[in-house]
């Protein structure tokens, strides 16, 4: 017995070390995301209330950003209103004996659905965004998602009340984009490194462009109309032997501060899809 | 007594600075310095090793609770608390009967810097590897470890240099 105590005393540090590391490690391994102990998480009342105080302080720093976004959106809406009024006036002025009026302008085929981002990540390899709108609000798969700054992503899954969006920040999706300046198009893809930048591929070496050029949606997909900002050219280079440029695009949308987004609903989506499928 | 009080205050201050300020820094997407380890690093050289381990475990668990990392900080902090005496023996030759607080003055500038960077590196390597829990994209994890080690060390040495003034 005395030997045992002597042993314990001699190796007490090592023994305690092993015990503590075993506890920590089993906590790490047993953490499966659901059965976590609330006590050791930010769900703990004390910690949650500390975070709440912290949040209420830092909230004010984000108010400015939210305000700017709303103001920008406001201006865009006013512009849109002015354009629509103008169009309405020209339609009214049309003489009654005119030939059959042409079909509605393609731009009028779009309806926006406002949604709130309820879950978002930017630091993973495969990022996803969850929205608070679903089937019952008219959301369906493949709808484009934008905010006031530009392209966010495409709807990939829809349930009754929620929708999951694959954002640009997910290497599993490619966006067709073109330069505003010269209409050359390529596809934008994220390389999984930095949430502010993506890569633009398929721009051949004869194409002339420069840093800061804007890249917008091409309108070739079912998800986005033409001309929505994706980002701007941040940097590019080309090796002697390459046929295509290696271009880094600064994304227009800041995915870290995403709060409200708009879903693009093509009213004639089915018709277009059916027509295109007939040809195949 | 003054010493104990001082340590309690620095414990609380370091935890608050870590969880309320530094954990919200995501500079370049992967910079997140963990300066709370300073508490363990600056315990007196002959401080009870058992008690150091217990303090490290408590400190790690508190940081874990705030960042929802369940044991990862606790594991890494206990690890450096255990290795700390070996690092001190390796880099310095403090006499048996003295009990200085680690600093530029007591260890010497070079030895103290080596002591800090070694333990911070071990802590960060353990933390980032356990966080991702795999060796996929190892280059990326290594980059995180090295960058964050350099930044944390720079902050810690900066704090110690200011304290010396």
Mean pLDDT of chain A comes to 80
Q: Provide the number of structural domains of chain B.
A: 1
Corresponding CATH superfamily of the largest domain in chain A:
Rod shape-determining protein MreC, domain 1
Main structural class of chain A: alpha+beta
- Cα end-to-end separation of chain B: 24 Å
**Fold-level CATH name of the largest domain in chain A:** Thrombin, subunit H
Number of separate structural domains of chain A: 2
**pLDDT < 50 runs, ≥5 residues of chain B:** none
Low-confidence stretches of chain A: 100-104
Can you summarize the main beta sheet of chain B?
none
Question: Which word captures the global form of chain B?
Answer: globular
Rg from alpha-carbon coordinates of chain B: 15 Å
Rg on CA atoms of chain A, Å? 27 Å
Helical content of chain B stands at over 70%
Q: How far is it from the N-terminal to the C-terminal residue of chain A, by CA?
A: 85 Å
| CATH architecture classification name of the largest domain in chain A | Beta Barrel
SSE order of chain A = HHHEEEEEEEEEEEEH
Describe the SSE topology.
The complex is a heterodimer of chains A (about 280) and B (about 160).
Chain A: H1 2-10, H2 12-30, H3 45-93, E1 110-120, E2 129-131, E3 144-146, E4 151-158, E5 163-167, E6 175-179, E7 185-189, E8 197-201, E9 214-217, E10 229-237, E11 246-251, E12 260-266, H4 269-278
Antiparallel strand pairs in A: 1-2, 1-12, 2-5, 3-4, 3-12, 4-5, 6-7, 6-9, 7-8, 8-11, 9-10, 10-11
Chain B: H1 2-21, H2 38-41, H3 49-67, H4 72-91, H5 104-107, H6 109-132, H7 138-164
Helix pairs in contact in B: 1-3, 3-4, 4-6, 6-7
Key words describing this protein structure:
heterodimer; A: 280 residues; alpha+beta; Thrombin, subunit H; 6-stranded antiparallel beta barrel; 6-stranded antiparallel β-barrel; 31% helix; B: globular
Structure description:
- The complex is a heterodimer of chains A (280) and B (165).
- Chain A has four helices and twelve strands; from the N terminus they run αααββββββββββββα.
- Chain A starts with a helix and ends with a helix.
- The longest helix of chain A has 49 residues, at 45-93.
- In chain A, strands 1-2-5-4-3-12 form a six-stranded antiparallel barrel.
- Chain A is α+β, with helices and mostly antiparallel strands and 280 residues long.
- Chain A is elongated and about 105 Å long.
- In chain A, a hairpin with a 4-residue loop joins strand 4 (151-158) and strand 5.
- Chain A has helices spanning 2-10, 12-30, 45-93, 269-278, and strands at residues 110-120, 129-131, 144-146, 151-158, 163-167, 175-179, 185-189, 197-201, 214-217, 229-237, 246-251, 260-266.
- Residues 100-104 of chain A have low confidence and may be disordered.
- Chain A has two domains: 39-93; 109-280, Beta Barrel (Thrombin, subunit H).
- Chain B is mostly helical.
- Chain B has one domain.
- Chain B is built from seven helices and no strands.
- Chain B has helices at 2-21, 38-41, 49-67, 72-91, 104-107, 109-132, 138-164.
- Chain B is globular and about 45 Å long.
- The mean pLDDT of chain B is 86.
- Chain A binds chain B through residues 12-13, 16-17, 20-21, 23-28, 31, 36, 39-42, 44, 47, 50-51, 54, 58, 122-123, 125, 193-196, 256, and chain B through 20, 24, 26, 28-30, 49-50, 53-54, 56-57, 60-61, 64-68, 70-72, 74-75, 78-79, 82, 130, 133, 137, 140.
């Amino acid at each position: 017995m005395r030997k045992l105590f002597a042993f314990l005393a001699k190796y007490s540090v090592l023994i305690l070390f092993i015990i503590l590391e075993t506890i920590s490690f089993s906590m790490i391994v047993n953490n499966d995301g659901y059965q976590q102990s609330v006590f050791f998480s930010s769900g703990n009342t004390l910690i949650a209330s500390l975070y709440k105080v912290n949040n209420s302080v830092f909230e004010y720093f984000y108010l400015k950003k939210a305000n700017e976004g709303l103001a920008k959106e406001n201006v865009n809406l006013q512009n849109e209103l002015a354009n629509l009024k103008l169009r309405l006036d020209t339609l009214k002025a049309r003489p009654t004996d005119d030939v059959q009026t042409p079909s509605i302008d393609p731009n009028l085929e779009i309806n926006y659905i406002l949604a709130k981002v309820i879950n978002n990540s930017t630091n993973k390899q495969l990022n996803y965004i969850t929205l608070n709108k679903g089937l019952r609000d008219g959301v369906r798969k493949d709808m484009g998602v934008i905010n006031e700054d530009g392209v966010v992503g495409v709807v990939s899954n829809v349930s009754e009340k929620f929708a999951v969006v694959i954002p640009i920040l997910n290497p599993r999706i490619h966006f067709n984009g073109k330069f505003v300046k010269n209409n050359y198009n390529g596809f934008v893809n994220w390389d999984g490194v930095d949430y502010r930048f993506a890569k633009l591929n398929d721009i051949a070496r004869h194409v002339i462009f420069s840093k800061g050029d804007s890249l917008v949606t091409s309108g070739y997909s079912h998800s986005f109309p033409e001309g929505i900002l994706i980002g701007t050219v941040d940097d590019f280079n080309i090796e002697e032997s390459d046929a295509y440029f290696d271009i880094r695009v600064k994304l227009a949308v800041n995915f870290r501060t995403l709060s409200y987004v708009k879903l693009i609903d093509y009213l004639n989506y089915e018709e277009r899809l059916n027509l295109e499928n007939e040809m195949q | 007594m003054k010493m104990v009080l001082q340590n309690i205050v620095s414990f609380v201050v370091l935890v608050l600075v870590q969880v309320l300020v530094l954990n919200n820094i995501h500079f370049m997407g992967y910079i997140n310095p963990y300066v709370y380890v300073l508490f363990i690093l600056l315990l007196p050289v002959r401080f009870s090793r058992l008690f150091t381990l217990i303090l490290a475990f408590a400190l790690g668990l508190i940081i874990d609770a705030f960042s929802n990392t369940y044991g990862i900080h606790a594991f890494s902090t206990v690890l450096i608390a255990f290795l700390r005496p070996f690092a001190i023996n390796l880099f310095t030759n403090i006499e048996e009967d003295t009990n200085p607080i680690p600093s530029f003055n007591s260890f010497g500038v070079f030895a103290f810097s080596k002591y800090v960077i070694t333990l911070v590196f071990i802590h960060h390597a353990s933390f980032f590897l356990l966080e991702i829990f795999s060796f996929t994209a190892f280059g990326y994890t290594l980059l995180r470890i090295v960058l964050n080690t350099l930044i944390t060390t720079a902050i810690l040495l900066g704090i110690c240099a200011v304290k010396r003034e």
